[in-house]
Task: inverse folding
């Protein structure tokens, strides 16, 4: 009977060392070892969110759609228990259906989920649910219980770290990955559902939208959901028939006469562009799978078909360019990656690929410009190593040395780390 005792000791420990605060959404008091205040919470979200978005494919390059999703999101967030957070809503360019909220009000919905919705009320239900997680501080509670809190506090305290791939940038990356990977408990999901329904009704939407969208999820799950659903939305937001029924009952009990809008036509107009690229992205996703298996010929063939259908999608051209790069066709890689960067300069991966091509072709200055941008968007080991090489080749010895050393420290046992250590030693004037 060691387990209950250990748990008991743990909770005493929390009582002694921890603080107590009232949760804004639930009114319940919260125990925690350390409390993160609102300002810290926003700062964490601000640091981790852009990196999380980059890791998932960057933002969909459609400003009108982004404005629309922000309008709908703000409408529900402003009637939540935490209306004053600096909410931001992003559409992430990922086919796997998903939505997530980071601490501080940074909320994302994927292209793959958005194209599956039928009306604005469903969108409001999804964003309201995520705003519910934010209001009830679910992500922060999860952090406070786990190792992520220490990481978060380190990231917050390291404000003076300026290095392109210094410890701060690496820790922010780990924090983003850790937060993205966190799943919620069943009770947290139900709470976010109820809060989301409250918000959408207050914002003038028909709560039927919440049931419609969950009914759709349930049918996906029941029909043996495609892997994309299981690795996306259903993994981080556990879903069940009970949850769907609980929401039906909650609406019947609390909003029996609610009217409100579904706004199907407005929604259809705004996502028309996204729906047009749907087929192209289905081809792109199959190409990505081939590329992962090392079947470059088949991958390139499908990327080309995808690019023919949607020639202005930077992500598709990035995939194509990177496949050419792996196939060692540098000129085809350069053509497609340069076009991807022209269409959307704010994606770390196309910048990384283009920087690599420039290095290979002897244009070190061009390489540095693209790799610095890539590292600013998302610090990666590969980007750090290549940028150090670019600094070395443009005669910036000190910067090259620091960056090689940072990569070597971050990846001491890996090939890249070992190579970086060797190049740092071999730099002229270094012992
Ligand atoms: Zn959820």
Result:
């Amino acid at each position: 009977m060691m387990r209950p005792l250990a748990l008991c000791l743990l909770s005493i420990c929390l009582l002694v060392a921890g603080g107590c605060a009232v949760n804004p959404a639930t009114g319940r008091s919260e125990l925690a070892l350390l409390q993160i205040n609102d300002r810290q919470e926003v700062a964490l979200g601000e640091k981790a969110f852009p990196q999380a978005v980059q890791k998932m494919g960057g933002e969909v390059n459609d400003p009108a759609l982004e404005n629309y999703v922000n309008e709908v999101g703000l409408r529900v967030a402003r009637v939540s228990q935490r209306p004053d957070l600096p909410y931001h809503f992003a559409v992430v360019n990922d086919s796997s259906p998903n939505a997530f909220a980071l601490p501080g009000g940074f909320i994302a919905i994927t292209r793959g989920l958005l194209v599956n919705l039928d009306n604005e009320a469903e969108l409001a239900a999804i964003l309201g649910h995520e705003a519910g997680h934010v209001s009830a501080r679910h992500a922060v509670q999860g952090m406070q219980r786990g190792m992520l809190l220490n990481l978060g506090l380190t990231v917050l305290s390291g404000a003076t770290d300026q290095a392109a791939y210094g410890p701060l940038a690496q820790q922010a990356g780990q924090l983003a990955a850790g937060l993205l990977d966190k799943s919620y408990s069943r009770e947290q999901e139900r709470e976010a559902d109820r809060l989301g329904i409250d918000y959408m009704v207050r914002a003038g939407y028909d709560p039927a939208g919440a049931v419609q969208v969950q009914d759709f999820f349930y049918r996906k799950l029941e029909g043996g959901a495609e892997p994309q659903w299981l690795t996306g939305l259903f993994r981080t937001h556990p879903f069940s028939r009970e949850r769907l029924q609980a929401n039906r009952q909650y609406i019947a009990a609390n909003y029996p006469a609610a009217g409100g809008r579904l706004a199907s036509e407005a929604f259809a107009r705004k996502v028309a562009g996204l729906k047009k690229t749907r087929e192209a992205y289905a081809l792109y996703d199959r190409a990505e799978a081939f590329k992962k298996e090392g079947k470059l010929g088949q991958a390139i063939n499908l990327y080309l078909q995808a690019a023919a259908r949607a020639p202005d999608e930077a992500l598709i051209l990035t995939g194509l360019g990177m496949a050419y790069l792996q196939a060692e066709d540098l000129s085809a890689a350069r053509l497609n990656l340069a076009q991807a960067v022209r269409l959307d300069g704010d994606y770390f991966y196309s910048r990384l690929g283009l920087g690599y091509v420039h290095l290979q072709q002897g244009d070190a200055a061009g390489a540095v410009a693209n790799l610095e941008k890539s590292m600013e968007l998302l610090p990666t080991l590969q980007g750090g190593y290549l940028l150090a090489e670019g600094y070395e080749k443009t005669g910036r010895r000190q910067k090259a040395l620091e960056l090689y050393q940072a990569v070597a420290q971050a990846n001491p046992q890996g090939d890249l780390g070992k190579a970086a250590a060797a190049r740092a030693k071999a730099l002229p004037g270094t012992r």
